[in-house]
Amino acid sequence: MDGDTLCSIGDLARRTGLTVKAIRFYSDHGIVPPTDRSPAGHRRYGSDAVARLDLVRTLRDLGLDLATIRRVVDREIALPEVAAAHAEALAVQIRTLRLRRAVLTAVAERGSTPEELELMHHLAKLSEDERHRLTADFLDAVFDRPDATPGVAGVSRSLTPVLPDDPEAEQVAAWVELAELSQDPEFRARLRRMVEQHLADRAQGAAVGPRRDAVAIVRDHAGPALVAGVAPGSPQAAPVVTEVMARYADLVGRPDGATLRRRLAGRLENANDPRRERYLHLLAVINGWQPPESLAPEIEWFLQALGAGAAGEGQAG
Asked: How far is CA 96 from CA 89, 92, 129, 248, in A?
């Protein structure tokens, strides 16, 4: 097909490797129209037909629809623009397929029931925006307060799960469990009480600048005693309780006493909710973080030590 030489549809099929039927299909749709017809009415194609058909075949292999292909070969739209749009569409499809694969792998590993599979599939197939809305609804229910501080906003951000585009089965399973947990009204209420207690401690404290919160204070002092094997009901535990209470009293700007000790005990009991610890574990799995250390041993040790010393506490608070 040199110069202006025209060829038949059969010749074009031999040159391109396409079937006559396929070329006729593209011709009927105006994608590769014939340049002319023979006296007998047979289609004749010009020198550009091979190049057009090569481009058509490539675009079809990439999944473009016929209408878009026609606009590309007719130069109505730029190929880079089409390629970018379809690359993004393929990226979405790939993420979806990866997520489905992870769901099926999680089901196979967990031996899920049909009901669990349905729930897992429903939650895992949520779009990224829908997952963000579900998480935001939970975090707003816990942290959205008019007196919230920048520090509380930071804590809220640190509790946000972000499922990766190519999650492992373990991450999908963790996301599903975390999503279920975040919808538990009792769990939401417990976390909101923790936030309220934290803000109350901060509001009443006289100190200025960064300060340890109640749980951190207990961890820092009860931890070494626990490692050293100090029994919570022993005399050796009393100085630890005294030191923790002194630091907590300074934090909230109130004197040590029975009232303050009950207040701290309530803070620690809320913080020691196993669901909170489970949420943090699942969050670490989803976000690919190091799993957090459990604070339950330190909190439980201190609560026992605090209870053992309560009878000897003479101040009314």
From this structure: 11, 6, 14, 49
Q: What average pLDDT is seen over the chain?
A: 81
158-190, pLDDT tens digit by residue?
Answer: 888 888 877 887 888 888 888 888 888 998 888
Report the alpha-carbon distance of residue 310 to residue 262 in Å, rounded. 9
How many Å apart are CA 283 and CA 287, to the nearest integer? Answer: 6
Cut 0.70: pTM above it = no
pLDDT for the residue 208: 43
Rounded to whole angstroms, the maximal C-alpha distance in the chain is: 116
The rounded radius of gyration (Å) of the Cα atoms in the chain is 34
Which amino acid is residue 123, in one-letter code? Answer: L
Which two three-digit tokens encode residue 34?
A: 């014939």
Q: Domains of the chain by range and CATH?
A: 7-77 (1.10.1660.10), 123-310 (no CATH)
Other C-beta atoms lying within 10 Å of the C-beta of residue 23? 23
Rounded distance between C-alpha atoms, residue 301 and residue 234, angstroms = 11
279: burial class by Cβ within 10 Å (0-12, 13-18, 19+)? Answer: buried
102 residue type, one letter: A
Strand, helix or coil for residue 37: strand
Calpha distance 142→182 (Å, rounded): 10
Query: What is the secondary structure of 86-134 as a DSSP string?
Result: HHHHHHHHHHHHHHHHHHHHHHHHHT--HHHHHHHHHHHTS-HHHHHHH
